[in-house]
Amino acid sequence: MNNTNDTGFGIIRHKSDTIASILEDCSRLIGDQRDGSITLCNENIIDCPGLNLNLQSQQLEKLANKIRKGIFSVIVAGDFKNGKSTLLNAMLGHNILIARSLPATAIITILVYGENNEKVPKEVAVYKKGVKNPIIVPWNEFKEEYKLTTQDRETLSRKKFLDRFEDIEYAKIECSFRLLEYGVQLIDSPGLGESMSRTRLSTEFLQQSQAVIFLLNATKLLADRERDFIEKRLGSGRLNHVFFVINWINLVEDEEEVEDLKKWVRDYLEPYFLDNNGKFDEAFYNHRVLYINAKGALEARIAEPEDTEKLEASGVLDLERELEQFLTSDVKKIAALETALTVLESQLVQAHQKINEDKAKLGQTIEKLKRNQERAREELKSLETDKREIETIILGFGEIISGKVFSSLLQYTNEFKNTWLDTKGKKGDATTLIKLDFGIGDILKSALRDKDKEKIRNILGEQIQSYLNTKYEEWAYQLPTIIGDDLNRMFDAVQSRIEDFELKLIQIDKLFSTGDFGIELETEKAIAKKSTMAFFHAVMLDPGSTACAFMGEGKWSEFFTRALVQGLIFGGILVIFEMLFPSVGIVAGIVAELLQVKWGEEEFKKSLLQKLGKKLHKKLQEEMPTKYDKVSEEVKQQFSQVAQELTKGLQAQIDQQQALYDDIIARYSKGNFSAQKERERLDAICDQLIDLYNMAGKALGKSSEELNLLLSLSPEDKL
């Protein structure tokens, strides 16, 4: 890891600090108007800043905060006991994650930079589904309440999923340790054994992360669920952003065995390291597959003084170097900062427009402004109709899509029987997903004792539950294909209506300033389009999203689809799981039937699976059609939440506009108000906004030609 500020993470950290400072200054310049003066990061001093654009100001402040907390997201995934917490501790340089007791093995845990210099965090922010503000939990309570218990591990072993934390989105811990200071967010994930955690990883955190560290165990390499994760979650083909890290290599003492292990790993991973000609890219492979001793690295780092020789031998430094080179060498990896410039531009265009409109108001008498205010109020009321139309569009698509989701679910369920077993009864879902941990002897005992009979029924029931978990999780990943086109059409319709809404706001402001709507100019339409982009940024982003999740123009449809699909998976699929677990009822009677015939071990298990599948699929086909209302309501609820968020944001703009007019009338009515001083104040704000925007562009290496024409605007210019 480089500890200087002239390479890699240091350069990006400096750029991100600069951009964050600029965003904070612009936020103060366009936010609440205040008395006194402020000093900006360009060392200029400005008196009485503020344009009362509070919504836009809040967005810039939030974006600055996200950038300061981290622009690189690195997720660490892997099975239980592979050493994820130990590796994270080694990378942090401190033993903050307590192995075997911290809920890093139970819930998503995000480590971000903060000013806490203590050896352990004071508190943890826990985010729950559907709740914007986190619950602040003291550190000691957090460790006890959210850790994996012995009972949780037994549940995972039997059922292959855990529902005790199903209402938790993630936990966020702030600390000031070494790696986080460079703008890296580390995401510690649950073990692969927890079914719903894999869904959450693939649909949200994996997609938001710039890099994935997939941790394997040298003593038990590539188990079935690890292969499944690689194939279904990480994807096929060349995986540029994935680091395959094999831990516990120090436990393989025989050199010949180590070489055999490395060859076996290479043979398995070869398809993910092919070049454009289909040939194995050995150099690339060596940059992405690393062998480490995480425990040794941690011991070396916390030693006083640090044991540099042991640390180098652990392989963790090699991982950090490769990670740094990957994150900082590709220009795409600072897309968050470049997108921040785009967001800043859209907000400053609005601010510039408001400055021009405010200056136009200075030429009006207070009596005329009051008359214009009444007309503007009536026009703002009419926007509430537009707001309701947008809500109606979203809810209408919710009706359509809910029907498609259920039809797909029903068809998918009806096809289960086709993949249960092949014609010979030897291959299929039943043989890969159902583990029969008992034989004929157990069946015979069950005929004599109710206790043994109940045990077998419970085992079969839990296996069915695990089977259904896996099948419906696979279905969930088909949702983007099923509803993607409809969501895109919905987005296009909503975007068009919101652009019209933003254009009307601009015209209403002109009405207040001049008493006339005027004609629609292309520049006003362009401003409305940028305002729409800023609106989606402000309203749709999740509090846990990283700065890199901010989308640029042309990415809104993709984000909209992902957000809704994520809601359907985390909401709708849970309903499906709850309603399809009549496990004990399905297996009733099977034991008695099998006891009537003498079987060999293989014939017994084959017959058991056949009878089990027949009963299960018959039950599913009977039950599924009756669940339409429940599934449909869950799907529509997701659309209702999106509609509420959007319309709430639109109403906030209406309310802000009304408040601005009230404030202007109040200020202009004061006896000491000076139109000339107000004009000078607005000009000064405009000059500083342009200077800060220019400064941000140069920090990111943009030439004057690449930057927006906003740079060349003088305070008198009209957009």
Describe the structure.
By secondary structure, the protein is α/β, with parallel strands linked by helices. The chain has 26 helices and eleven strands. The chain has helices at about 10-30, 55-70, 85-90, 140-145, 150-160, 195-210, 225-235, 255-270, 280-290, 295-300, 310-315, 315-330, 335-360, 365-415, 415-420, 430-435, 440-450, 450-475, 480-515, 520-540, 555-580, 585, 590-595, 600-625, 630-670, 675-700; strands at about 35-40, 45, 70-80, 110-115, 125-130, 135-140, 170-175, 185-190, 210-215, 240-245, 290. The strands form two sheets. It has a nine-stranded mixed beta sheet, sandwiched between helices. Strands 1-2 form a two-stranded antiparallel sheet. The two termini are about 45 Å apart.
